[in-house]
Amino acid sequence: MQFTINGSSHSVDCDVRTSLLDLLRDHLGLTGTKKGCDQGACGACTVLVDGERINSCLALAVQYQTRSIITIEGIGSPGNLHPLQRAFIECDGFQCGYCTSGQICSALGMAGELKRGVPSACTADVRAREIEFNSDEIRERLSGNLCRCGAYNGIVQAVQQTFAQTPP
Amino acid sequence: MNVFSYERAADPATAIKLFARGHNPKYLAGGTNLVDLMREDIEQPGTIIDVSGISQAIELRADGALLLGAGAKNTAVASHWDVRERFPMLAQAIVNGASAQIRNMATVGGNLLQRTRCYYFYDSAARCNKRARGSGCDALEGFNRIHAILGTSSHCIATHPSDMCVALAALDAIVHVEGSNGPRQLRLTDLHRLPGDAPDVETELAADELITAVEIPPLPDAARSVYRKVRDRASYAFALVSVAAVIELDERDKVRTARLALGGVAHKPWRAQLAEKALQGASATEESFRQAAEAELELAVGHAHNAFKIDLAKRVIVDTLQELTRRPGEES
Lengths: 168, 332
Known about the structure:
- The structure holds two protein chains of two kinds.
- By secondary structure, chain A is an alpha+beta fold.
- Chain A has two domains: about 70 residues, Ubiquitin-like (UB roll) (Roll), CATH 3.10.20; about 80 residues, [2Fe-2S]-binding domain (DNA polymerase, domain 1).
- Helices cover about 30% and strands about 10% of the residues of chain A.
- In chain A, strand 1 and strand 2 form a beta hairpin.
- The longest helix of chain A has 16 residues.
- By secondary structure, chain B is an alpha+beta fold.
- In chain B, helix 11 runs antiparallel to helix 12 and helix 12 runs antiparallel to helix 13.
- Chain B is globular, with a radius of gyration of 20 Å.
């Protein structure tokens, strides 16, 4: 199977049952993406596909061969962090860090959704052209990412300050 | 997960042909439910036919009806301006379901055909007539907080988990399907079955029939609508009770049209026909809304942990109808 991950092409010989998550971790060594629940409930496995966030644990890799996949490894590097990664450090947006790569991919996907005007369950009027960027919207839109350490306040603050400086 | 072969279909005719020669075949779209069920060995297809690319179109027809391609993603539907402006209740229902990640994967067709989230259905150590007909139902005496109160049987009290389908039920949606016997259409409210003595048979579709689109007829200009969901946590949880309501009043504040559907209460999206009948021509008052809710829930049956849903459903119906018929400036 052929994949495009973080801008590079990969040819992988794998079982058709392989999830996108297992492809990344077990076949390509991209272990930044985490396996939490493996059933779409926790969001630790969130990656971006053509800019949209998905749960890679619920995705059969075979369905994603022609798509552009971005994982946390394609977002920043230790010497060159993404502004959102710096904000997570500044705001204490994690303790153990296990959910963090999923939180960051999810927040980047969320920023794209806000830019496109996608409504959420706390958008007062789904017909409104402008969506307010506030902490209620962030909490609702990131509800698919659990943090068992409970670093939510730091996460919301990091997301809010990053995209307040560069509005989504 | 059992071994399966994977094929991708570019159009319904190809999908149906591949289905005919498949081994215990299954259509796959977004995968958010089927992949999970396969991992639990609850679904064990020998052939997977990927239909996710078949129709992602969202199209407003000249007659005002909206056509949602079966492959359209939940997020695409909820974001589409024709949906948001003409059928805001549908956008509300979709964004009240699942998480953003799942809405980016899940499709219209898959949403309709998703299976129950009953814990005992998922637990292979439990008895479940839906998984193995005749084995019994552990939900009846078990932890049944999320289970059904309407249309249940002694064989199954599972619910249909969709939010989107509840809105579609109230919107009189039509499901377009295609199979080896050709294309046909059926009402969304006729798609899903009540459990009876065969809870494993969940829809009226033939095995090889593929959902190709969902059609929503236009709403009257003066109709107001809303989707209201009550759940155990503020986000990313299935409904305990949800209400999709469309109401249109005449010039004397009498109900001209009322369409109500309930979620979280039955094995299918529950069109509240008894309440609708009670509302027809009634004054738009709290009292008539209460009578309508009572009429609908009269035959409801609660179990040890979900009897609260009967009262909750009544109250959510009344409150939702009051919200929809409140004049601007009136106190809530």
